[in-house]
Every structure is written in C-alpha cells, then in structure tokens.
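RECORD TYPE: inverse folding
INPUT: structure tokens
STRUCTURE:
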C-alpha cells in the first residue's frame, strides 16, 4: 500500500511539469504581447523603447529554454509575478480570493452529497417506484438546465419576489443558499445516476445472494457492503468536480457577484492580465491532480477489491 501511494505521488510531478510546459507554450503562442498588455493595463501608451524595456524586465528577450526553467523555478517558490492591473503579487490575490471559492465549492458538494447519496441508493433499491421516477426526473432536469439560467430564476423568485435571500455578495449563511443550490443541482443529477447504476450492478453480484443465504440482515448487506462498494464511481466523479469547483465556479460567481477566484480569472481575461491567467492554469491543473489523488486513496479503503489489486501489483 505504501509503495503504491509513493508511486502515485511521484507520478504527480511529471504531470504538473507538463501542465506548466503546456501553459508556457500557450502563452508564448498567444498573439498578446505581455509587455504591451502590461502597458495597456497601466494606461501607458506603448512605444518601442518602453516595449523593449518591459520585455527585458520580464525576461522575454532570453532563450525560451531559460524562460521555461525560470518559470518553473518561480512557480515552485509560489512566485507568479505581479498582476498587471493591481500591481500586487498574484499569489496574494489568490490567497485573498480563493477562500470564497473554497467555501462555495464545499457547500455545493455537501448539498449534492446529502441529496444524491440517499436518493440514488433508494431509487436503486426500490427500482421503478415513485421515488425512482422522481430521481430520474430530477437527474434529467439537473443535467439539462443551464446554471446561469437557474441562477437567475432563483434570484428572481427567492431574492426579488420573496425577499428571502440576498441577491449578491458573500457574508452570512444566507448568501450561500442560492449559489450552492445552483451549483449542486447539476452535481446531484450526475451523482444520483452514477450511484443508482452502481447499486443496481452490485445487487446482481454473488456476494449479495451469499449474504442473504447466510442470514445476514438486509440493512447490513445494503449499507456495509453494497453502498460501500457502489459509492466508488461517485467518488471518482466527486474528485473531478471538486477540482473544477475549487478552481472557480466561473459562471455562478459572475451571476451572484461572488468575490471568488473564478470571477477574478474572468476579469483577468478581459484585462489581458497574463500573470493571473498563468497562475489560474497552473493552480487548476494542480488542484485537479491533487483532488483525484485524494479520491483514489479514499477508494483504496472503501473498496477492498481495489486494495487487493493494489497490493498484488505493488
């Protein structure tokens, strides 16, 4: 088990380096000149002398290989440069805005798990019942409704008409309700269908029949064995969606004026703030990798079959 985990951790390093390399290449292929973008963000008229000075300051006149290794060195030290707009360190901006995105992401995941786990499990156990039909309808709605449209509908009814929740901003728990529901509905649709399909598949396995013939309680078979193994595909989807949420729920943050990392990234695109864009790409890759690694580790403990395969291989 330890050897397996160590190999997984070592495999993360080349993936992150490749993500940095891809970001580096895309920025260099972009038609936007970083020196010109910096001067434009500072409301300074670009001249040839100023452009040459800024290119030298940013190290753009160096060979590409030197620039790449300098970029890797800076990122390892959490030095993403200064924002062209605010002229403050990008890492400082990230640490200021990322907690808001973290809070919104975890609240949405919590709502999705609380709803989808019992709904997906019970809809499989009571197949073709009214609960199963309701879960299917909810899944179809969640998968088909655009998030921005749902957000505006919730704002219109619950914030404007009923005046139950605030329209925008971040502060009390009431500010979390509407954006969390907006984000979680699509997740509920995915997790409910994944869990339902997985439970139905596990109910056909031999160990369920064997447990019943041994006289084990039906509740124990369902919860301790079927649910524990069936939740594995849902955890995989959770890892992928958690990485997406942590890097910024861009559309929802724009709709609810949420001061998070995703909204900051959108503003950076419009302002051609290249250091912020670079930091977003690298941070997004790292968060996706780390979240999936954590989910894989959790699955080793939840599904004994995965644990045995891991020991056999390593």
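DESIGNED SEQUENCE:
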């Amino acid at each position: 088990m330890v050897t397996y985990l160590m190999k997984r951790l070592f495999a993360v390093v080349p993936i992150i380096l490749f993500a940095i390399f891809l970001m580096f290449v895309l920025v260099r292929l972009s038609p936007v000149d970083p020196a010109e973008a910096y001067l434009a963000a500072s409301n300074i008229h670009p001249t040839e002398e100023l452009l040459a000075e800024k290119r030298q300051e940013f190290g753009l006149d160096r060979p590409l290989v030197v620039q790449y290794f300098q970029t890797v060195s800076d990122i390892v030290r959490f030095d993403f440069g200064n924002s062209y707009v605010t002229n403050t360190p990008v890492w400082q901006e990230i640490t200021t805005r990322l907690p808001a995105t973290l809070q919104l992401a975890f609240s949405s995941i919590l709502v999705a798990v609380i709803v989808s786990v019992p709904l997906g499990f019970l809809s499989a156990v009571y197949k073709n019942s009214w609960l199963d039909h309701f879960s299917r309808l909810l899944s179809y709605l969640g998968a088909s409704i655009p998030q921005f449209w749902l957000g505006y509908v919730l704002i219109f009814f619950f914030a404007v008409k009923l005046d139950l929740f605030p329209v925008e901003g971040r502060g009390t728990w009431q500010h979390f309700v509407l954006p969390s529901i907006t984000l979680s509905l699509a997740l509920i649709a995915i997790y409910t269908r994944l869990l339902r399909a997985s439970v139905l598949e596990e109910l056909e396995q031999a160990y369920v029949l064997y447990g019943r013939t041994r006289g084990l309680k039906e509740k124990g078979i369902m919860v301790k064995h079927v649910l524990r193994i069936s939740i594995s595909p849902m955890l995989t989807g959770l890892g992928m969606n958690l990485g997406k949420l942590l890097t910024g729920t861009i559309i929802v943050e724009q709709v609810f004026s949420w001061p998070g990392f995703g909204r900051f990234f959108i503003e950076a695109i419009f302002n051609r703030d290249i250091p912020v864009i670079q930091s977003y790409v690298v941070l997004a890759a790292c968060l996706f990798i780390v979240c999936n690694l954590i989910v894989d580790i959790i699955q080793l403990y939840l599904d004994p079959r995965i644990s045995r395969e891991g020991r056999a291989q390593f």
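NOTES: Residues 309-314 have pLDDT under 50 and may be disordered.
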